[in-house]
Specification:
The protein is built from 7 helices and no strands. By secondary structure, the protein is mostly helical. It has one domain. Helix 5 runs antiparallel to helix 6. The longest helix has 25 residues.
């Protein structure tokens, strides 16, 4: 059995980064290189995110509360609130909200064929 944290690391965190990267590039005309520096990942990772290789992010865009958190994160990055502690804290807040969402429960159940799980609630 895989714990929810494994699904977070493999699917949720890349999806958060993909949404933030997409927002920074589309809303603020940032380059992939600049986005990679702000997020602390490589430019090829940003390229993969933009190529849609993390399909879970599409489900997250339908959750208004999660998207509000992601949009706030993007804005904070743009105004310079990008110290490592702030970035980590914001990503953790978004991740915790995702873990309590129906989207995550469906993803977790799908990957583990585990139905009725409420560990993250």
């Amino acid at each position: 059995m895989r714990p929810p944290c494994e699904v977070v690391v493999k699917i949720v965190l890349p999806s958060i980064r993909a949404l933030v990267a997409k927002g920074l590039i589309e809303k603020y005309d940032m380059t992939q290189k600049k986005v990679s520096e702000k997020l602390g990942v490589t430019q090829p990772a940003i390229s993969q995110y933009m190529g849609g290789k993390h399909a879970f992010w599409k489900e997250l865009t339908e959750n208004e509360e999660i998207m509000d958190l992601i949009n706030d994160f993007e804005e904070r990055l743009m105004v310079g609130e990008s110290e490592i502690f702030d970035i980590t804290s914001m990503i953790c807040d978004i991740c915790m909200r995702i873990r309590s969402s129906d989207e995550f429960r469906n993803l977790y159940e799908e990957h583990l064929e585990l139905h009725g799980c409420d560990i993250c609630r």
